[in-house]
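lol ok so funny story. i was supposed to be doing the assay writeup but got distracted and ended up predicting the structure for this chain instead. priorities right. anyway since i did it might as well share w the group, maybe its usefull for someone
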Amino acid sequence: MATGKALEALVTRSARRQGLEMRRNTPGMTVVGRDASNRAVGFAHNTGRLDFEGFLHTGQHWTFDAKSAKGQSFPLRNIKRHQAVIVRKTTERKRMAFFLIEMTEAKGGPRYFALCWPTLQPFWDRKDYGGSQSIPLSVLERECLEIPFDGRHLDLVDALEQIAEVA
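and the output, tada:
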């Protein structure tokens, strides 16, 4: 089971093994202002990116955020509002953006899914109005691309190529 940093390490290890060009975006602060002596005087949290981004061999840009969940459903509270906005807007521009969802306790697990905006949107839109607060594993299995996992690596290149075909 990979959670948090372990999931990010799994993604990084898998990408390196497959020769996938990727950048890991780290959270932190960005300088947004400087004084006359060029000293930093203003900072903002980096909230404009997802965890990972890169390019396929075809030149197509991709970005995703890695999330992990236990049980038989994925809690929507694991997704921050700005992350959902990034995935929505990127998808609307016909580019690849998704959430890589790790279901740690799935039968035969852990299992990994690419949760794209068309599947997320109805759940996301309803959650603010008392609707479902999670996405059942059965929906992930039925509507999301399952990313092959051999026990040590994810087949990210194959998954990205399949997502690119429909983006």
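The two ends are 30 Å apart (CA to CA). Confidence is low (pLDDT under 50) at residues 28-35, 39-46.
back to the writeup now i swear
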